[in-house]
Design goal:
It is built from five helices and no strands. The chain has about 130 residues and is mainly α.
Length: about 130
C-alpha cells in the first residue's frame, strides 16, 4: 500500500513538474519559455468566453510572439534595466491590443496588466 501511494504521488509530482497534463499546442513543444507564457495567457483569459475563437491556438500564437518580443528586446542585464522592461511591456501590450482587434475578444485592462506582469516575470527568470 505504501509503495503504491508513493508511486501515485511520484506520478502526480511528475505531471506537475512537466505539465504534461495540460493540453499544450504542438507549436509550443520546442520552447519551455513559450509554454510558460501560454499558461499565463490562457489562465488569464479563461474567465472570458469568446465566440468563434480557437482559444488554445490564439494563446499559443501570443506565447510565441511574446517569446520573440523578449528575444528582440533583451540585452545584457535587461532584468535590471527599467527602459528595456518598459519596451518589452509596451510590445506585449501592443500585441494584446492587436489581438483584441483581430479576434473581437473583449478582455479588460486588468487582464492585460496581469498577463504583462506574469509574462515579464517569466521572461526575467527564463531569459536572463
Amino acid at each position: 500500500q505504501a509503495s503504491e501511494f508513493l508511486m501515485q504521488a511520484s506520478a502526480i509530482m511528475d505531471l506537475v513538474l512537466t505539465r504534461t497534463g495540460d493540453e499544450i499546442p504542438e507549436i509550443l513543444t520546442t520552447s519551455e519559455t513559450a509554454k510558460a507564457y501560454y499558461g499565463s495567457i490562457k489562465e488569464n483569459l479563461a474567465t472570458f468566453v469568446f465566440e468563434g475563437v480557437a482559444m488554445n491556438q490564439v494563446c499559443a500564437e501570443a506565447a510565441l510572439e511574446f517569446d520573440q518580443i523578449v528575444e528582440r528586446r533583451r540585452i545584457v542585464n535587461w532584468g535590471t534595466n527599467p527602459d528595456v522592461q518598459n519596451r518589452i511591456r509596451q510590445d506585449f501590450e501592443d500585441y494584446l491590443f492587436d489581438l483584441k482587434t483581430r479576434t473581437g475578444m473583449t478582455f479588460d485592462f486588468d487582464t492585460i496588466d496581469k498577463i504583462l506582469d506574469t509574462c515579464l516575470d517569466i521572461a526575467k527568470v527564463r531569459r536572463p
